[in-house]
Amino acid sequence: MAEPLKLKAKSASPGIASGPAFLAEEPKAASAPGTGGGYGALEKAIDISIGELERLADGADAESRDIIDFQIEVLRDPTIAEATGARMKADENVVFAWVATLDAYIGELEAADEEQMRARAIDILDIKNRVLGALAGTPVADFPPGSVFVGKDMEPSRFLAHDWSKGGGIALFAGSAAGHVALLARAKSVPMVVGTGRFSAADGDSVAVDGDGGAVILEAGGMLIPPLAPAGDIKTESGELRTADGVPILLSININDPAEIDALDPATTGVGLMRSEFSVTSIADAANEERQLAIYRRVLEQAGERPVIIRMLDIGGDKPLAGLEDLPALEPGLRGIRLLLARPEIARVQARALLRAAVFGKLSVMLPMVTFPDEIDRMRELFREEAEKLGRRSLLHRMPPIGMMVEVPSAALMLDTFGSAAFFSFGTNDLTQYLTASVRDGNEADAGKAAPAVLRLIEQAVELAGGKPVSICGDMAGDPRYLPGLLAAGLRHFSVAPARRRAIRSAIVGLNADGTRAAGE
Ligand code: PEP
Ligand code: MG
């Protein structure tokens, strides 16, 4: 059996603890929608948060009460309310005004010279997320008693809400021995180490925290996160699948829920489309960088070496988002990238979450409903700006390749002008709708009649792609009736719903790469 791995760390609270790992960035339950009501909604969420903190303070020891009082004081601080109010007057939605105000505060603390001050940043992050949780209706998630909390940092309220009587410990990749959680851990005799650096462990893996010697010990299987190969090449040898005449074909899956990543078996190339809008169900979720990061990280870690394409929020139009209607100056009809560029505060949060998630796997980012090349350039610039901010905050991140959905007919016709897209993926659901003046999920017979026009457009567009990676993730990819036409159009990478994989695999092996039926079929 392999030797356990011992990582050096800094002791923050003495004692030895062991137990199953709890990975902090597990996604929380889907949020309840609705953050309308402007400043009133924020005031209510702050009141709820203060109430929660007061309940936590009941029966708490003196140290805990001090920390809770500090958080309540910040929540009652009129300068924070004023700064949030000023941002709202400048046309920001209440949730984003709150996030921007608190982020500015966190940024100041993180840049402080004194460690004591820097260690306060996690308290403000804690407050920010508690209020976001109250706005969205999601409480701060607890973790199983007796487990070892593993994460970048820990919010004091998580510590306070947790039952430590069953044992357990804390191992933080970053963190501070001068922070509130360390202080609480010492007061409650919870072994804790900080500054372990990133390591990978699965939920439930056995982990020991040595708060005396300053170490974390991982059972065999845990490892330091190795540097990844440069991202960008979305080809992989896994999922070896060939047409009857021997041409390799890639078969990926589309996922709408992070849990569907479980369907990624070794014979599948990767995730060809993750529709992120299904994990972000309210404006408060859209403003919650940590929550999004947790979701993307989980998917990437589970995919391991296999590529994952996460599509930025395709919201607006026929994909509503609760609370979107409350955003000021939002024109009707804005959808996908146009909406993201019109409300960059939404895009910036998601860009930061994606940049940070990119270090955990082989991520590519895909932009929805792209119509004009400058939309990609503007989004790239936004990613660059956010990457710079993360760099200033010393947060690990990596710039992922940025590609686009080809689902607007005018973009398909002009694909050679999208020089800054790293890759293309055909979205035949919208492509068919907009090409044929039909409705999505319309009549089957009409979709069949429309197919030749859609296939011709795809064939021309594949030519115009100029050798860049091209795939298809619309529903046509999962329908064996269209496979001959799609192969003939030059497509070699298909991303389908997990349930469609089997049918597509068996159809592919019976066809030649030009779409003709193989001899004997
Ligand atoms: C498409 O339009 O084909 C597509 C994959 O995107 P969605 O179905 O999410 O609109
Ligand atoms: Mg679409």
From TrEMBL:
Domain Phosphotransferase system enzyme I N-terminal: 10-120
Amino-acid biosynthesis recorded as keyword: no
GO BP term (any one): phosphoenolpyruvate-dependent sugar phosphotransferase system
Domain called PEP-utilising enzyme mobile: residue spans: 143-214
Native organism: Rhizobium aethiopicum
Pfam families associated with the record: PEP-utilisers_N, PEP-utilizers, PEP-utilizers_C
Co-factor(s): Mg(2+)
Similarity remark: Belongs to the PEP-utilizing enzyme family.
Protein name: Phosphotransferase system enzyme I (PtsI)
EC number: 2.7.3.9
